[in-house]
Amino acid sequence: MRFKSFFFALPILFCAAFSHLASAQSGENTYKQVCANCHGAGVLNAPKFGDKAKWKPLIAEGQVELTGHAYFGVRAMPPKGGNPNLSIEGFADALVYMVNNSGGNWKSPDAKTIAAINKEVEARKAGLKK
Ligand code: HEC
Question: Dihedrals φ, ψ of 77, to 5°?
């Protein structure tokens, strides 16, 4: 029995130890699945992955602002990266991955930052209704 419960606990230990890596991993996956289509090649003038000069002023807007605006959609950039099922958390992690490969150094947003991003998105929505 003891042996069995050890194996039962193993995945939990792994999750605890690697949860900080998990969001980086899922950010990379989401980027590849959702964002790379446009941001890989610069389709429609999307700021290209790795183009530090293009990303510099965007990164300077700050994580809350930039993530909120992009998630809501801006000009030729579709809301949620064109994937209606993409959560704010998933979108934010994909953006962290893109930013950190384009000259920035952002972290996967914590609950407080996610709440602030959500507020930014809601403010944009409210602005549209006026
Ligand atoms: C259908 C193509 C397309 C997809 C898919 C896409 N983007 Fe974009 N994105 C664009 C374009 C085009 C722009 C430039 C918008 C402009 O300035 O006109 C842009 C701009 C941005 C910006 C800068 C916004 C600003 O304030 O100027 C961010 C951040 C961004 N995208 C993040 C993402 C993330 C993260 C994903 C994936 C989850 C994603 N995009 C998926 C086309 C796309």
Answer: -85, 115
Give the residue extent of every domain in the chain: 23-129
| pTM for this predicted structure | 0.87
- CA of 101 relative to ligand 1 center, distance in Å: 15
Please give the mean pLDDT across all residues of the chain. Answer: 89
Question: What pLDDT does residue 23 have?
Answer: 82
* Residue type for position 10: L
User: Which class in CATH covers the domain with range 23-129?
Assistant: mainly alpha
Our answer on whether the CB atom of 90 is closer than 6 Å to any ligand 1 atom is no
How remote is the C-alpha of 38 from its chain's centroid?
A: 15
pLDDT band at 104 (very low <50, low <70, confident <90, very high): very high
